[in-house]
Amino acid sequence: MPGQKLLQQNEGFLEAWETYTEKGILKTELIRNVIADSWIRSRKHGVDPLSEKIEVNLSTEELGKRYNQFMALIKTARPFMSSLYKLVGNEGLIIRLTDKDGYVLECIGDQDLVKTYGNLSMYTGCNIKEEVIGTNAIGTALAIDGPIQVFGAEHYCKQFHNWTSSACPIRNEKKGIIGILSMTGPSCNVHPHTLGMVVATAAAIGKEIKLEKANRRLDVTNKHFHAIMESISEGLICVNPKGVVLDINLFARRLLGLKEEEIIGKNISCILDDMQESKITDMIHSGKKYEEEEMHFKSGRNKRISCIASVTPVKGQDSSEVEGTVFTFRAAKKVHSLVNKIVGAEAIYTFEDILGDSKLTKQAIKVASIAANTDTTILLLGESGVGKEMFAQAIHNESNRRKKPFVFLNCGAIPRDLVASELFGYVEGAFTGAKRGGHPGKFELADKGTIFLDEIGDMPLDAQVNLLRVLESKAVVRVGGHDVIPTDVRVIAATHKDLLKEVEKGNFRSDLYYRLNVMPIQIPALRERKEDIKVFIDYFIDKFSRRMGKEVKGVHHSFYKTMIRYDWPGNVRELQNVMELVMNMVRDKADISYEDLPSYMRSGGFIKEKRQGGKNDAFDLAEIEKNTIMNALDYSGGNMAQTAKLLGIGRSTLYRKIEKYSLEHLLK
């Protein structure tokens, strides 16, 4: 707009201003609506249009706080303000930056002008909102939330009538207006295009702030990513599409015994087992994700480390081109230990959980406790159902391996062809149906812990050969493989068979028998420790009462007597099943009696017709004597004097026989 036209317009502005300030009448045909609205707001704020000095200043301390609060804005805006000033190349102009509250934070330009007209709120720390000095470019830009140029008499206060100012808000995406950029000078020095330059500069400052924020966010993200990489308890290696290592975290460096400079920039193949190089290359190029893959690394200590790895491709925005690959992995032994914990492959019983007060039970527990504190191979002997696994778990929990895996394998429950692969694992392609990547065996899973081989007498002869080799070498070779994998495993074996007889029959290797039979522990059958039967009965009554929500009023003596006299060929397992049946049948808050027993026990089934390899108990005088004493004690309620009188023997004789047959538990 030509200067002459601006001066003519300013005369109209002055006329409108005088009419409004003197009479309160707005001549809207002479001024813009935005200016008229601002004048009205200025009057409501109580601004004196004729005042020669209007100041609201920050103290030095308050200004310092503002500087700290808006330092990011100031640092970003300074170079743009300098460039703008150089661009206009005109003395007599001042470029100011204010915060969102209208306080001047930065001021560059003609310093003589600042010194001369300091009372016109040109300096840092002063406030130039409409509420303070009335209509002005900065204050009105804040009020209308947009750019504006205020010329001469459009200012509400007369002292600014010789000035023209252009101002534009600087915005933040989330916070809105964070500051105002303005250019001010005498009306004769300001061109209408000044506003356009101010608007463009303010927009550039806003974009730069946005870019800096994005860069800071990216920098923080990179730092977080690096911190996460360095802190996670898994190995992590990032490679480019050609397999060149871009990054490797602390866990991986420690596991592989490498320094960053030894691997960064080199192809990952240099730390891979030679057999896997082509396989990993295919994985990198496939763009597919692989999980729980077995990988073998060559460490910096010239060791071969087996790991379980996941391979994740990094793809571009079009989700087709592979831009890199991330390998995450852990030592296979650590993974196996974790899997054992998750799936419950751990010992839960201790020696305190083994019930029984008999001499035979206490003797077995004593021997097992001694064995637990050694690393000796243990052979548990006893009939099915006597609690061999409970003893094995108790031994493990008493040992220094208690915090490591406890792995169980029933050698009699696995098909003969699969025993070796279950024990020692297999490599990929070892046989039809072999899992991709191979699979670890029980010995690998039990590393540093205990393996319990139940029913060892049913193990096939070919597997016995491999087991003997493992016990002697303390290392396994997977089925179909060649690599020797060291293992540190404590072996507890168990059987209900007479292994010496199995050796004589050719069903069990003699060398393996002697290798296992280092510390044999005989777990007595229930019929050999009948004084423990009442303990088991009471335990199972309490257990099933809580489970079934039943209350048992009492237990008739005839029930105990029949249970004790029964021969228990299935041992504790059979007794538990009988008690569960009884507790299901008995009524709530009723007595348990002889009538609640299974029919085969009530009909005299407690006399086993013929024990395997033994004689008929019905014709065993010692058994008859024992049963007679038990009946007499039952009849007398455990009273010694009455029992001796019933039997026609002296009390001292009765004492000897009670001790002989371990019937102390029947005494009153």
Key terms:
five-stranded antiparallel β-sheet, 26 helices, alpha/beta, 668 residues, 43% helix, single chain, Beta-Lactamase, Rossmann fold
Describe the protein.
By secondary structure, this protein is α/β, with parallel strands linked by helices. It has 4 domains: 3-213, Beta-Lactamase, CATH 3.30.450.40; 232-332, PAS domain (Beta-Lactamase), CATH 3.30.450; 344-524, 3-Layer(aba) Sandwich (Rossmann fold); 532-666, Orthogonal Bundle (Helicase, Ruva Protein, domain 3). It is 43% helix and 17% strand. Strands 2-1-5-4-3 form a 5-stranded antiparallel sheet, with helices on both faces. A 5-stranded antiparallel sheet has the order 7-6-10-9-8. A hairpin with a 4-residue loop joins strand 1 (94-99) and strand 2. It starts with a helix and ends in an 8-residue tail after the last helix. The relative contact order is 0.05.
- How many H/I helices? 26
Give a count of the beta strands, DSSP E runs of length 2 or more: 19
Average pLDDT confidence is 84
Biggest sheet architecture: 5 strands, antiparallel
What percentage of the residues does DSSP assign to strands (E)?
Answer: 15-25%
Tell me, what is the CATH class of the largest domain?
Alpha Beta
Helix/strand-derived class? alpha/beta
What is the strand and helix layout of this fold?
Elements: H1 3-23, H2 33-44, H3 60-69, H4 71-88, E1 94-99, E2 104-109, H5 111-116, H6 130-133, H7 137-144, E3 148-151, E4 163-172, E5 176-186, H8 194-231, E6 235-239, E7 245-248, H9 250-256, H10 260-263, H11 277-286, E8 290-298, E9 304-315, E10 322-331, H12 332-342, H13 359-372, E11 378-381, H14 388-398, E12 406-410, H15 419-424, H16 442-445, E13 450-454, H17 461-473, E14 475-477, E15 484-486, E16 490-495, H18 499-505, H19 510-516, E17 519-522, H20 533-548, E18 552-555, H21 557-565, H22 571-585, E19 590-592, H23 599-602, H24 621-636, H25 640-647, H26 651-660
Parallel strand pairs: 11-16, 11-17, 12-13, 13-16, 18-19
Antiparallel strand pairs: 1-2, 1-5, 3-4, 4-5, 6-7, 6-10, 8-9, 9-10, 14-15
